[in-house]
Amino acid sequence: MSEPNRAGMPGLPPPRPIPMKERSSILFIEKGQLDVLDGAFVVVDKNGIRTHIPIGGLACLMLEPGARISHAAVVLAARAGTLIVWVGEAGVRLYAAGQPGGARSDRLLYQARLALDDATRLRVVRKMYEMRFGETPPERRSIEQLRGIEGARVKRLYELQAREHGVTWKRRDYDPTHWGAADVPNRCLSSATSCLYGLAEAAILAAGYAPAIGFIHTGKPQSFVYDVADVYKFETVVPIAFRIAGRAAKGKLEGDAVGETRRACRDIFRKSNLLERLIPGIEEMLSAGGLALPEQPPEAMPVAFEDPGGLGDAGHRG
Q1: 3-state secondary structure of 86
Q2: Is residue 293 part of a domain?
Q3: CB burial of residue 255 (10 Å; 0-12, 13-18, 19+)
Q4: How many Å apart are CA 62 and CA 298, to the nearest integer?
Q5: N or C: less crowded end of the chain, CB within 10 Å?
Q6: For residue 129, is it within any domain?
Q7: Contact predicate 108/208, CB 8 Å
């Protein structure tokens, strides 16, 4: 028997990560066993039917209740640079996420330095505001003041979307412990934003940054994910959520509104080339801080051996 390779499977070459911009976006898996059979990533349903998944060509794999995954499948996904996210029913709650990236300490230190300095953090937040709304934010405003201005604009944008699509809208209201209590527009929005969060986290990790080190949002495992996703939210998933909620309100939707929202988000990610834009967008946000990537200190211990060069993004381990 041949010796196992770095992917943990005998006789098979390690997968070479595909750059994030060349991948498909997300795939949801429900009620199936994920495993590696004959070197391929497969889902086996209760009837024993196998469905092959090109795991290396996906940015993010969402596991819903009823999905089980083997150790070999987790290893293969990690080596291929595909983020695995464990989510609630319909993907509206994020429980945990695997980590295919985060392999660049210089990027992590760079991000931390930007977030810990008040001046650089404010410059990054101002760039996020500019990219999100297409205009320069008001001068001499603190992050707290910018957050208040942003909140008022977001509330107004929700109201405009609801009016355009004929949706009865009260406010953004979502309790993850009582999913059924939310109205259809809020459920569609929660489903849409969860899709975007998974994709944003995959891009952040692929670029070598930390999802937890945020600039506007803080104190959560996905703080930076929320920061990045908010920049793109209103040009991608929010209009989709309100459009589908509007169709449901008019009785023009045959299927489930939440499922339809997820499929529409998948399509808009592809049409808008969002994956191709995410990592350059993250770099643009952080470069506004005006700092350079840290250099290795002269007293640092040299590496014991050099890893082979990969084909993936900066944060991929492969």
Answers
A1: strand
A2: no
A3: exposed
A4: 42
A5: N
A6: yes
A7: yes
**CATH code of the domain containing 78:** 3.100.10.20
Q: Residue 125: which residues within 8 A CB-CB, separation 6 or more?
A: 143, 146, 215, 216
83: left (phi over 0), alpha (psi -120 to 50) or beta: beta
What is the rounded CA–CA span in Å between residue 264 and residue 133?
23
Task: Please report the DSSP string for 148-214 in residue order.
Answer: HHHHHHHHHHHHHHHHHHT---------TT-GGGS-HHHHHHHHHHHHHHHHHHHHHHHTT--TT--
Six-digit token string for 81: 């640079």
- In DSSP terms, which residues pair with 58 in a beta bridge? 24
Other C-beta atoms lying within 10 Å of the C-beta of residue 143? 17
CA distances from 9 to 17, 283, 308, 310, 311 (A): 17, 35, 19, 19, 20
d(CA 148, CA 154): 10
Six token digits for residue 43: 């889902």
- Amino acid (one-letter) located at 92: V
Instruction: Kindly report, residue by residue over 246-290, the tens digit of the pLDDT.
Output: 999 998 988 889 889 988 998 899 888 898 899 999 999 999 999
pTM (2 decimals)?
A: 0.81
Tell whether 220 is covered by a domain: yes
Domain that holds residue 72: 20-87
Q: How far apart are CA 121 and CA 6, in angstroms?
A: 39
Domain count of the fold of the chain: 2
